[in-house]
Amino acid sequence: MALDPDIAARLKRDANGLFAAVAQERGTGQVLMVAWMDDEALARTLATRRGTYYSRSRGEYWVKGETSGHTQYVYSVRLDCDGDTVLLEVDQVGAACHTGDHTCFDADELLAPE
């Protein structure tokens, strides 16, 4: 699956060809998770509307929820101004975090509101 050349030209990738992908819940605006994508993962996500990422540790693609059942329907995808991060607005079914939490950002609050 090939990424549209116009989109590919706008992306800024790291030395491994990867860029950050932030998944945000559509209904609440809550940031659910951050993962990595490459051109292929983004192309798959755009074609299927299923959050598809690249695992740096396993060296393979993974579709959110494929094994856990905690799926992501991708409502929209936006590229940031620098071209090095995409924002996926998703409808999350079940937990987004591999720990079973709804979001990966539930664990450690480093600075609380005053």
UniProtKB/TrEMBL annotation:
InterPro entries: PRA-CH, PRib_AMP_CycHydrolase_dom, PRib_AMP_CycHydrolase_sf. Its main location: cytoplasm. Pathway: Amino-acid biosynthesis; L-histidine biosynthesis; L-histidine from 5-phospho-alpha-D-ribose 1-diphosphate: step 3/9. Catalyzes the hydrolysis of the adenine ring of phosphoribosyl-AMP. Zn(2+) binds at C81, C97, C104. Pfam families: PRA-CH. The keyword Magnesium applies. This is Phosphoribosyl-AMP cyclohydrolase. Binds 1 Mg(2+) ion per subunit. Mg(2+) binds at D80, D82, D84. It is found in: Cytoplasm. The keyword Metal-binding applies. The gene is hisI.
